[in-house]
Amino acid sequence: MIPVQTRQPLTEGSDLLDTLVDIHSGPPPVKVRGQRATSTGAIEESYRTLLLPAEPTGLSPLERTLVAYRVAIVTNSAPLVEHYRGQLRRLGATVALVDAAERLSLDEPLPPRIHTLLQQVDRLTSEPQTATRDHLTTLQAQGLSMPDILSLTQLVAFLNFQVRTLAGLQMLAAGV
Amino acid sequence: MTIPITAFTLAPLAWRPWLEPLDYARATPTSLLLALENAPLRTTAPGAPRLMPDPAVTRPLLVSAILDEPTGLPPVERELAAVIVSYVNGCLYSAAFYGWRFVQLTQTPTIIERIFAEGVDTPLDPRPRAIVDYAVKLTLMPDRLLRADLAQLRAVGLSDLEVLDLTHVVALVTWLNRLCQTLGEPVATADEPTSLP
Q1: The CATH number of the domain covering residues in A16-174
Q2: Cβ atoms of residues B14 and B186 within 8 Å
């Protein structure tokens, strides 16, 4: 288990995706997003619930952020890589850990639990159709609890959503 | 006796979790809620993943906001995109479910059957072609989207609001597919899916 600081993560702007689209594509923001306030609010709520939980169970805040960071790396989402790298630093992750989590090959020394988590991240992100029941059994054998596995699966699935929503918003912003 | 499904089909499918729901009793209510409250699973379909014991969270806001939005991208095109994403991701359960919804709306299985048989390059009219191309690219290569992809969608008449809706559907189904694919498997069933409320 990696020690985690108990400090709450920094408050973001009102909406992460709007913030990232603005930063990386420049104004004007994607205007039509204003007509989808319910979706937009629910997306932000999902982000906060999964990444910035008030009372995290299953994966720790640092582990959650590492998982998110790894999905951003694997999917080559530059704005989210930068965002989660910043979050990792705020949560007290060491440079060595952040570096190890961004290498394409996960053979570099990582704490065993983190290694297990990130291997599953890679599989669920890049080859979801190869997932089997045995993988869940293996995760449990490697010490992950049921809440750990559900947290991990939810996070990876959500991050794949976040990456694609942001990519579409950036495309729309660039086409204004 | 349940038979695992190994090929794309429009036949009714159920979903069998690999982690038995009984095991969830060992987790605390707080841990379950935190782990599951954002699970955007359509539990209104028979056999849909029953991961959430609390009925209050069985139909999360995000799913209904994206899939059941009354304006913008027409429902049949949402279902088409959902089928395509599920097909590309190899999620047999979701492909069958959204395929069934598509057939309900169009009253013909032809297009979905052709996609399952011939793949996403099967000939289509220009507007569905552009929607399918975008769904495939956003599913497989989200980092490669270009202004030209937006231009292609606009050229067949999609408004920016429809493009946003399409983006939301593609992204959401990539989320749902991963839950279905990594926490359980599709099995044959005799039950037709029921209509969503």
Answers
A1: 1.20.1290.10
A2: yes
**What ipTM, to 2 d.p.?**
0.89
Q: Cβ A164–B138 below 8 Å, yes or no? A: yes
Do A175 and B147 count as a contact with CB atoms less than 8 A apart? Answer: yes
Question: What's the pTM?
Answer: 0.85
> Does B18 contact A165 at a Cβ distance shorter than 8 Å?
no
Tell me if B6 sits within 8 A of B170, measured CB to CB: no
Contacts of A142 (CB under 8 A, 6+ apart): A112, A113, A116
Q: Tell me: the pLDDT tens digits for A69-107?
A: 999 999 999 999 999 999 999 999 999 999 989 887 877
Rounded Cα distance, B64 and B50, in Å: 17
* B26 vs A contacts (CB less than 8 Å): 146
Instruction: Count Cβ atoms below 10 Å from residue B100 Cβ, excluding itself.
Output: 20
- Tell me: the pLDDT tens digits for A38-47? 889 888 888 8
What are the pLDDT digits (tens) for B15-65? 766 765 434 433 333 333 334 443 433 333 333 333 433 333 334 577 778
**A165 interfacial to chain B (CB closer than 8 Å):** yes
CATH number of B1-197: 1.20.1290.10
